[in-house]
Specification:
- The chain has 308 residues and is of the alpha+beta class.
- The chain is 29% helix and 27% strand.
- The protein has helices spanning 69-96, 127-137, 148-155, 166-169, 179-184, 191-194, 209-216, 273-276, 284-300, and strands at 2-8, 16-18, 30-35, 38-51, 63-66, 101-107, 113-119, 140-145, 225-228, 233-240, 245-252, 255-262, 266-267.
- It has a 5-stranded antiparallel β-sheet. It has a 5-stranded antiparallel β-sheet with strand order 12-11-10-9-13, with no helix packed on it. Strands 6-7-8 form a 3-stranded mixed β-sheet, with helices on both faces.
- A hairpin with a 2-residue loop joins strand 3 (30-35) and strand 4.
- The longest helix is centred in the first third of the chain and has 28 residues, at 69-96.
- The chain is elongated.
Length: 308
């Protein structure tokens, strides 16, 4: 077992593990640590905890010190300097005529490097821009191309649910999301209704995926023939997955009646998953949009904001 402490360097960013040594720390404290890109100012999000050796990558770098009031003031000044750096970089991009969108500027705590995050449709030759920026800031310059998910994570916003975006408030990593998850939850497969403001599938599709998979295993599908526990045979008209209720069309002579049953009161032959997820009513254009959306998901990959 190894004692570690979890530290973040940005809101909802990746958690990095460090050796707390003998420094007394608690959640919410600010610390100064050495990272791969220089000395950084971070926030403790996981207090000193014993972890299995196999769960961490050795060797761990130690916490240099708990942040002092002077460190807090320096960090505040760095945030102000970032605003000016952003403005200057934006002007230089226009000057060099580059097709790129600047998203954020970030100083390391020791001012040893300035990082500029940007998005672009393809590769950008920014070598002359880097030279120009280096002559202005007199420090190391890094331009990092990120995806639209990372852009949204940095800028934040309000989701369709009316709440602040998950990726900007608490999601450390982007979990893989697929069209299959929307199908499993019986959501509309209209791309505009299952995409977030970043234009990719909504991260929250992952939140309830496991419970929907479990509940769907116990349910028939609309159109299935079922036998009820009171001896009737009928066709499933609709299902309520969360309440585990099924409406069944029962034929009695020349009359039809819709009755509601619990899933546990019915006998039916479960379909294969590929049949369960099939949507016969999708039009060709919608299907093409969904395929394109899924390809973008695979292309984006993991976040480019964090250093490995």
């Amino acid at each position: 077992m190894t004692k570690v402490i979890g530290i973040r360097f940005r809101t909802a960013g990746k958690i990095y593990y460090f050796d707390p040594r003998d420094v007394e720390l608690k959640r919410g404290d600010h610390v100064i640590v050495e990272t791969a890109r220089g000395v950084e100012y971070g926030t403790v999000v996981m207090p000193p905890t014993d972890m299995e050796d196999g769960e961490i990558t050795q060797p761990l770098k130690p916490v240099m010190r708990k942040a002092s009031s002077e460190d807090d003031e320096k960090e505040k000044k760095n945030r102000e300097k970032e605003k000016q750096a952003f403005k200057i970089c934006k002007e230089k991009i226009v000057k060099h005529g580059l097709e790129m969108k600047l998203i954020d500027a970030e100083y390391t705590f020791d001012n040893n490097k300035v990082l500029f995050y940007f998005t672009a449709d393809g590769r950008v030759d920014f070598r002359e821009l880097v030279k120009d920026l280096a002559s202005v800031f007199k420090t190391r310059i890094e331009l990092r191309q990120i995806g639209v998910r990372d852009e949204t994570k940095i800028l934040g916003g309000i989701g369709f649910c009316g709440r602040p975006l998950c990726c900007h408030t608490y999601l450390s990593d982007f979990a893989p999301v697929s069209i299959k998850m929307a199908k499993e939850q019986n959501l509309s497969l209209n791309p505009s209704k299952i995409s977030g403001i970043c234009g990719r599938l909504m991260c929250c599709l992952k939140n309830e995926e496991d419970i929907y998979e479990e509940l769907n295993r116990k349910m028939p599908n609309p159109g299935d023939t079922v036998t009820t526990d009171d001896g009737f045979k009928g066709e499933v008209a609709s299902v309520n997955v969360l309440r585990q209720l099924v409406k069944v069309v029962i034929e009695e002579g020349d009359e039809k009646e819709i009755k509601e049953y619990k899933a546990s009161q019915l006998k039916f032959k479960p379909r294969h998953r590929k049949d369960r997820n099939r949507d016969k009513n999708k039009n060709n254009s919608e299907e093409a949009e969904l395929r394109a959306l899924e390809q973008l998901e695979k292309k984006d990959g993991k976040s480019k904001l964090d250093d490995d």
